[in-house]
Amino acid sequence: MTAEDTRPESWHAALHRLQREGLPHVLATQVTSAGSTPREPGARMVITADAVYDTLGGGTFEWQTIAAARRRLAGPDGECQAGMSLEAFSLGGRSGQCCGGFVNVLLEVFPGSATTLAIFGAGHVGRELVRLAAPLPWRVRWHDSRANAFPDWASDQPRLACRHAPDPAEAVAALPPGVHALVLTHDHAEDQALVDALLARGDTASLGLIGSRSKWASFRRRLRDAGHGEEALARVRCPIGMAAGGTGGDKTPYAIALATLAELLPRVESRERDDQRGLDPRELRHIFTDNAPTTFR
Fold first, then answer.
1. Is the pLDDT of residue 284 over 60?
2. How much is the CA Rg of the chain, to the nearest whole Å?
3. Are 18 and 111 in contact, with CB atoms under 8 Å apart?
4. Residue 257 exposure: Cα atoms within 13 Å on the Cβ side
5. Per residue in 62-77, pLDDT tens?
6. What is the pTM of this model?
7. How deeply is 235 buried, as exposed, middle or buried, from its count of CB atoms within 10 A (0-12, 13-18, 19+)?
8. Overall average pLDDT of the 130-135 stretch
9. Which homologous superfamily does the CATH classification assign to the domain defined by 115-267?
10. Other Cβ atoms within 10 Å of 224 Cβ, number
11. Which helix (H) or strand (E) holds 170?
């Protein structure tokens, strides 16, 4: 192992990785400095719920910055939201340090991917779905019960996790709440087991199944006999990709995948943004005069 292998990850490397992977994080930037301070304006660090990358100089001031960042990651109601805040530190007052200087730190909160898409099946349509979903700001969990089912290129795709999943119940149990699920494996019995487990959870944001209307009619009878009510069964979309694969339509894997994502997009909730975003210039004078933390979105 070389020295470079053990070198801590820099803030810019961590920022690139976390944004690529769609994980929540905060970028802390020292924007002002007066008197004696540990670092200079422009110093940065990246903070997650369980890690810190780089430093603003250490000491109580840095720990207070980390704590403030993690409060924003947790959010007032347990949900991280994008936004910015400016924290003011008197290094002889609030931070209890002997430097005696004054620092303002801008905290930029990146909440990560709001949507998780679970795809079951690494066949032709599954592969096209994963390729087409790559530019979208979603985290994708790709499952297949067969060993060595995933293509080599999958290891280079951002926000994508490939999972060998021979047990449908275990694979479904590991999903986060509010997941959008698409079931398209190589085996009808496996498809039914997955839909059964997903319906039993009761917390999926949407559930789509590949196949024909006759396949769904058969599944529906069996799932009803297994105890699933009409309201739950009505939430299953089958067939998926109808815009491409309907009667006389294009039934190629690419066309089915494209139509499936087009059907899914309206179901994916996007974060609402306020008309006013970032820093209102009129607030600058108040912030730097009163040294009071101000939050804006």
1. no
2. 24
3. no
4. 18
5. 888 999 999 999 987 7
6. 0.74
7. middle
8. 95
9. NAD(P)-binding Rossmann-like Domain (3.40.50.720)
10. 13
11. helix 168-173
